[in-house]
Amino acid sequence: MSANEHDKRATKWKAIFAHRRGKLSKTAATRVEAHIASSSEAQRVVATDALYESMAESVRSEATREPRWDQIELGIARAAKEAAADAATPQHEGDASEARRTATRPRFGYWAVGVAAAVALAWFGSRALPGAPAEPNVARGPERPPALVFASILATVDAVTRSVRARTDESPAVDVRPGSRLASGTTLETAHHASVHVGLYGTTGIVLDGDATLRLAPRETAPPMARHRIVLALDAGMVTSRVDPLDGEGARFDVLAGAHMFRVVGTHFAVAHRGNDVALRVDDGRVEVWKDGVRLALVEAPGTWGKVALFGADADLAHPYLPPTANDDGPTVTVPAVAGMTGVDINGMRIGVGGAELRVRVAPGPVEVIGWAGPRKLFESRVEALEGEVRIEAPSESRDDGGGVLTPDEIQRVVAPGAVGLRRCRDLASRQAGDEVVGQFRLAVHVGTAGIVERAALTGAEDAPSAFRSCVLREVRAWRFPRPRGGSVDFELPLTFVTPSKGTAKTADNP
């Protein structure tokens, strides 16, 4: 980096710091806000400065204590390694060549090491060095418990449909796009029928549906019942999360919805919040429900809690789209709105779109895009995305009208062992509801040309618990059939559940 580039970058940082402390004129503040909105590097500076402030605030409230010099030496050695690695990588404005995020925390780059070093000097410089004489006759009170410090989030927008805006206390609302960085304290707002996929760290992410408002790592005083270091405050709407894998406490967080706190102890779940109503749905793992410091429930998959009607009938939980090894400022793919299109596969990862245009960031290289209308393929396109925006202009339509063949024996060899999982769904739902799930249902299954169940529907189960319906559909979608000959296959199965004393799950092939 030349001296001129270094001075230019330093000037921008000074302006950002001055703006965050309210020292700029209105005109200058407007210019700085526009720069922050358009520059991923500027957003990282804001996030790091916010982290410094939270650390400094926690230090001011702590009782004086002897530093842990062994930990300091380890921290210095680790910072030196990271600084050396970052120094070997060219850096320039808008180039985020560091790793996207680690499994438990974001990476901020070499300049963040300098800020962290300043924090360490400010902290430990105010404390006595080893061997320094202690002040005589000073009575030490009991050591205060450590204050909860929210971890700094530097989340990344991975995919967007329709209008999604982000704002902070210091900056007005701006439209987000794939690759936008969201620092601690950011509030996300989604328009009607819009959605946004956000990566938090590693393979953990969230999906925010339409008409929703969510704050990332609120900087105000933590609720007493908050346990994890990251809190997502859901003011309205529905948020779905996937924590995969569970990597200790660092990869978990809490979802705050009104007076209720949902402690994440599981992997795939959703929280909905409308007015005074809240609801929880857990498809994998388990989630604790807390209110006023009291644990109300431990919900295990498949399970629900609260006003479950907020989720709708038989709605599948979304999976956050987390592109592998995608650069923050790397290429994006735009898929135009197509009438009737319900989802788009990006290199095999499904994103719900509801007929809207999709903008999604990808790893540089070949990208396979498939549009779906339910189980029917609308189009398929392959593009090379290396930089900038790649737009799918006129995708060729490729319809699959069925006509494939699977023999009854081939279907039976999959359905018969699969009935065990269906009975397990009935038993779990019955225990949770306190009443037996009984009745006759029909199961419609669509098997694609690869032998994968691409769609399943359960009819006649409108009065059954939603946990039962979602569990049955999840089990059926896990079935794997031989590849059909000549196209996809649709078939239906009658499904009967009676009380355990009289029988078990029955199908037409399993009387």
Taking the sheet with the most strands, its summary is: 19 strands, mixed
On the 0 to 100 scale, the average pLDDT is 72
The level-1 CATH class of the largest domain: Mainly Beta
How far is the N terminus from the C terminus?
75 Å
How many domain units?
4
Bin the helical content. 10-25%
Number of helices: 7
Total strands: the figure is 26
Tell me what portion of residues adopts beta-strand conformation: 25-35%
Catalogue the unreliable spans: 89-113, 115-151, 221-228, 501-511
Over the alpha carbons, how many angstroms does the gyration radius reach?
26 Å
CATH architect. name of the largest domain: Sandwich
CATH topology of the largest domain: Jelly Rolls
Q: What structural class do the secondary elements suggest?
A: alpha+beta
Q: How would you sum up the global shape? A: globular
List strands and helices in order, with pairings.
Layout: H1 3-20, H2 26-38, H3 40-60, H4 69-87, H5 110-125, E1 154-161, E2 164-167, E3 174-175, E4 181-183, E5 187-190, E6 195-201, E7 204-208, E8 213-216, E9 231-242, E10 254-257, E11 260-264, E12 268-274, E13 277-284, E14 286-291, E15 294-300, E16 303-306, E17 332-335, E18 343-346, E19 349-352, E20 358-361, E21 365-373, E22 376-385, E23 389-391, H6 408-433, E24 439-447, E25 453-459, H7 466-477, E26 489-497
Parallel strand pairs: 9-10, 17-23
Antiparallel strand pairs: 1-4, 1-6, 1-20, 2-3, 2-5, 5-8, 6-7, 7-9, 8-9, 9-12, 10-11, 11-14, 12-13, 13-16, 14-15, 17-20, 18-19, 18-21, 21-22, 24-25, 24-26
Helix pairs in contact: 1-2, 1-3, 2-3, 3-5, 6-7
